Sequence to fold (1003 residues):
Amino acid sequence: MAHAYTPGLRVARRAHLSRERTLPLKGDVLVKVGDTVRSEDVVARTELPGPVTILNVVNQLGIEPREIDDYMLVKEGETFDKGQPLAENKPLFGLSFLKTVIKAPIEGVVENVSDITGQVVLREPPQPVEVFAYFDGRVTAVLPEEGVQIETVATFVQGIFGIGGETWGDLKVTVEGPDRALTADKLKPEHRGKILIGGCHFTRDAFDKAREIGVAGVVVGGFHDQDVREILGYDLGVAITGHEEVGLTLVMTEGFGSIPMAPKTFSLLQERDGARAALSGATQIRAGVIRPEIIIPYPQDRWEAEADDVRESAQAVREGDHIRVIREPYFGKLGTVKKLTPALERVECETKVRVLEVAFEDGSTATVPRANIERIED
Amino acid sequence: MNQQTRVAPENIRIIIATDCGSTTTKCILIEKKDEGFRQTFRGEAPTTVEAPFEDVTKGVLNSIQEVEELSGRTILDEHGKLIYPSEGETGVDIYISTSSAGGGLQMMVAGVVASMTGESAQRAALGAGAIVMDVLASNDGRLPHQRIDRIRRLRPDMILLTGGVDGGTVSHVVEMSELISAADPKPRLGITYQLPVIYAGNVDAREKVTETLGDKMALTMTENTRPTLERENLMPARAKIQDLFEEHVMAQAPGYDKLMDWVDAPIMPTPAAMGLIMQTIARKKDMNVIGVDIGGATTDVFSDFKVEGQRIFNRSVSANLGMSYSVSNVMAEAGFANVMRWVPFDVKEQWLRNQIKNKMIRPTTIPQALSSLVIEHGLAREALRMAFGQHKSLAVGLKGIQQERGISDTFTQLATGESFIKMMDLDLLVGSGGVLSHAPRRNQAMLMMLDAFLPEAFTILAVDSIFMMPHLGVLSQVHEEAATQVFDRDCMIYLGSAVVPAGVARPGDRVCTYKFKWPDGSTDEGELNMGELKLFPKLAVGEVAEAEINPTRAFDCGQGRGRTAKAHVHGGVVGVVLDGRGRPIQLAQDHGERRNQLLSWFKAMDVYPDLSHINVIAEGSPSGE
Fold:
């Protein structure tokens, strides 16, 4: 086998991006094709069915389920206010002290009256749900009642792992190089609402300070798992994130620990310093992978001139490619593929695997399993 | 199941089979040789369900291409299509596949009483190869709105609704269906199709369930999983789940529509195929069998035990115990100390946490450094131990039933709800999955299984040579002869036998005296002391030796405490292991002592190259050397 396939992440100076922004349920689309939208614009809105409360009416009234309809004051499909009588019994001779009235514990609508179980399903008023544009762009399609498709041309960087949801703000590079850590002393009050770019690491005290200042998000090479655990208050067992509410969105581009950001990623982000960006920490590593991302749109008048991104294809690794090792003992080191050996070779732990020879930036070389590298786009 | 193949079974000569796992897609080539069917080449490639590919067939083609490169056979034409039928060095006669990609089949089940119909529903779903996300029951202690919220949030691929024996409660079953209706859950994949719901409860409630759910869900009826309290009838529900899996769920996953067109037999969930193989082994050999498949995302445990003359098959799945996607959860559930008790050098917690998370986010990486392999094996022991614990709690007798007990049953009959799994009665323990099948030394797989499952008395251990049991499970449906031949010749690797007196004593105290009579007439005899592990590598695959164990009063080797046990022990690529470490294994509390214990066991079993030079692993000293 002359090539290896690696889980490459996309890093592009200019990428055509198109995203569907849809509602979880059918609703109203508020924009039309051709509209220019900004991150914070609401593009679609709907109402989620409210929470359900179940009342066992027959038990409370001491009647049989099949009789329930005769005792309901509010029928299926009708609305009611909190405290309004929903059902009552008919006491003998109209004796009021024998009368039981069931009052509505909530405001809502009667969804279902069951003559089998004697239960009544009450649903609270719907809750509004809004979908934001998320990034600056143009509406290219409307999916009736569902949402829209928004397109932009942007610098696009996929991270490897993140926490926190969608946010947006102006980009601010805070370190001198990709191998420098973002520490607390580099954070200033004017960083409020911004998306900060760090280098190899984001320290725990810097995280606390950023949260205090009100930083919108941080993009950095690495972050300690121990710190993630302390911030969340639990150990992340399964990699499904995006709903954490920790005060800011954090995206790691390289992995856990202290790892210099890939030079290309850093220089791209540096080029766009000060531009408006959108950031999402949502990560899902199994079942329909979602990667965290930073999207830095170009102004619309520069779209045509700027859009020269090529769609990614299978990431075949070849001799001369720039790669990063993604497992110890060379974890995080950058280098160039010197030779792809076709035959299986025995590595230190005695496993026989397909390997490649890599020349590191410091001039040293090593043999590494092909499974343990990822290609870095030039 | 469709068993029509495009080439007549008697003409089948070349078989290609894939398993689309959550991390990698594995492809094997089976060829008919003079001696019969043999597995000849194997390829693998990352599974491509995720972006940028979002098409499972890409990974399938990559893995097939690797087999082409290795075997020299042309299998795909210039358009990437399989060539049929085989002719010389070109083409194949049949293609089959299993799949657990995309998180497998995720289900919710509902019953009336959690420990009765709820448990039967759970066993039905697990047996069909599903991951059970939650069990809803009328008595599960949750309020209706909490159950509704749960159904909505989990977004299962399918729901199995059971409850009530035939002629029993109707209202409780209808109540559960009303909850499902109120929740109106949306399927995980594809928003346009209706969520499949299988009703397998009280037949008297069918009409009312249809009234409640018929319009909103894709409702299917099948026989009751618990027609009476004393009888479980899981097969109709299991069959229905598997039908709907292909029809509804797989069809929504990226690229599966194409894959479904390519295969000659329906795509089976990997665990269902694996279960088929385990059952076949147990029944053919008339043995009590435990099998395990430890994957990247999940760990499945299977057991087939003879209980009171009846064979009982169970499968459990630990959805978040695995060696790549779920490795971080193994650490979270087991805890740092439990993982590290199997590692004979110091590892700084921060370093290990970062490395484990890095494996989770880049699941296809493999250990290169020896220290990484040892740590990975420590994690595997914990994943296996926890998964087996979950299995034991599920493989139990029917609860809440009345048993008639005669004098003869006094000592034999199981109490209701008691686990079927008795380690003394276990005959064969089979391991599968990357970390066991691909361990650089088979001795490593054997010790991992001994440490995690703690077999007692006399047990044969085996592994799946290169992870091909699921493939053979499907193949057995369309070409049993080929499946059986490959299974015997190329799939099962017998590691050997474990001889384990169960009990505990002080370190150094005598556990037993032993005598082995080997096939060549020679003998080995001696004393085994507490804390010792001995390996006799001289018994090869297919060979049988006679063993006589005389345990001391604190130990039992199958015949009762202090009573002599005689048995035949079977050979394998590792040999016969005499385990005097106690049950449970007595690991020293003191760190230094424990380190010495582990190093002596590893040496006795010839598990790793010398590890004594590795002292501390932390940031900045990644390999520790």
Notes: Chain A touches chain B through 66 residues (CB under 8 Å). Confidence is low (pLDDT under 50) at residues 1-6, 310-314 of chain A. The domain at 322-375 of chain A is CATH 2.30.30 (SH3 type barrels.). Chain A has three domains: 11-16+153-306, 52-123, 322-375.
